[in-house]
Inverse folding.
């Protein structure tokens, strides 16, 4: 579990280095906000999301731990290549390669953990695994900013790439492949020694997108990630360029905020899901939806704040509540499908979430900032962030829509 979490830390650290080092990269390579949005959004997401589907199908039939090791090695080499980029096309190609590698990172881990922990504890287990993104963000901010200040932004990419290659070797040697469905209770009418059915690729895809619960949780999470990835990819640039924060201050104060806040949100949501979902599956919708509704006014306060100190105070609560969706979503999907469908179903969840959120969120904010910049050169990112507020509302409405599907499922006796 610790090794898998550390791989997820590297996965997210590699992914977020671009946003963390946006300012020095812009100064060195002359990259615009719109180009940054494409690098961290659409260009990365297309490869990351699309390739996760065949990789997920393959992982459901092969050794998931070994596949994870290969993926970790690939994205780490690509991360190092980012540090060698001499222009925007070079950097774009390297980022696409990072997306190719990371496509094989998260879905196999979800399924491995679901076979390490029985139902009733998976929410907490997956929330602990989901510490990876906040720890990766915090370490990325602290390490990446510190290395950039002491050496250069290129050194940060190279160092993280080397660490990732060694981590891939550790995964290959020490992570054991658990039995698929070994901790799941067999249906009452199924013989104890019955072999699990083998799920076909297209059959699993049809099952996923025809299931109202799975489809709606994917869309609700996609709208949520539209907000979270947009914020992640541009907050540091916003704090430095429009709030007056220095890279040294980012390495300390923002790193602490993003690490502690997101970890708190991940863990709290996992514990809440394990507690309340036993009483009603509606908790999978109401917990993330309520978190986003409370977070919205504080996010607006963060964007408005005249100083970076006040901005960080306002940002603290959204940093936690914005991530109330992830552990419930992953837990719900893993428990809704058969053991031999878990990796592919997790990949399909990530496909919808990330094509919408990762692919379009940063791209939208970057494009909006470029649009506002001619008339508002001093606060173009502020205006672009204000434009994110309606997507909070959309995400809350989609979780309400999910609640109606969960209620209908419960009325039908839990048949999916």
């Amino acid at each position: 579990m610790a090794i898998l979490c550390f791989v997820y830390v590297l996965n997210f650290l590699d992914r977020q280095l671009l946003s963390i080092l946006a300012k020095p990269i812009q100064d060195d390579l002359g990259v615009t906000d719109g180009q940054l949005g494409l690098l961290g959004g659409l260009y990365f997401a297309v490869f990351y999301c699309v390739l996760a589907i065949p990789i997920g199908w393959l992982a459901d039939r092969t050794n998931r731990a070994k596949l994870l090791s290969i993926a970790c090695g690939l994205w780490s080499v690509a991360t190092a290549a980012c540090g060698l980029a001499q222009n925007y096309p070079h950097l774009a190609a390297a980022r696409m390669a990072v997306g190719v590698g990371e496509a094989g990172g998260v879905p196999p881990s979800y399924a491995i953990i679901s076979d390490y922990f029985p139902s009733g504890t998976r929410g907490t287990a997956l929330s602990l695994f989901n510490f990876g993104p906040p720890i990766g963000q915090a370490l990325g901010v602290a390490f990446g900013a510190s290395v950039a200040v002491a050496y250069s932004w290129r050194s940060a990419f190279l160092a993280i790439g080397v660490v990732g290659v060694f981590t891939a070797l550790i995964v290959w040697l020490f992570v054991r492949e658990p039995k698929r469905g070994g901790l799941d209770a067999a249906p009452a009418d199924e013989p104890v020694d019955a072999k699990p059915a083998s799920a076909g690729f297209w059959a699993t895809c049809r099952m996923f997108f025809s299931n109202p619960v799975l489809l709606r949780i994917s869309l609700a999470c996609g709208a949520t990630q539209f907000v979270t990835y947009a914020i992640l990819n541009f907050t540091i640039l916003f704090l430095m360029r429009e709030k007056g924060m220095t890279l040294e201050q980012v390495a300390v104060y923002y790193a602490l905020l993003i690490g502690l806040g997101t970890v708190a949100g991940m863990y709290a949501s996992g514990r809440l899901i394990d507690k309340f979902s036993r009483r009603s599956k509606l908790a999978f919708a109401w917990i993330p939806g309520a978190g986003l509704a409370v977070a919205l006014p504080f996010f607006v306060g963060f964007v408005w704040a005249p100083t970076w100190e006040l901005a960080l105070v306002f940002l603290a609560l959204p940093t936690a509540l914005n991530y109330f969706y992830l552990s419930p979503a992953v837990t719900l999907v893993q428990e809704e499908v058969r053991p031999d469908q878990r990796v592919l179903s997790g990949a399909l969840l990530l496909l919808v979430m990330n094509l919408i959120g990762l692919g379009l969120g940063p791209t939208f904010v970057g494009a909006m900032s470029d649009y506002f910049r001619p008339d508002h050169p001093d606060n173009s990112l502020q205006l672009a962030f204000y434009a994110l507020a309606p997507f909070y509302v959309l995400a809350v409405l989609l979780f309400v829509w999910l609640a109606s599907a969960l209620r209908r499922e419960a009325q039908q006796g839990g048949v999916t």
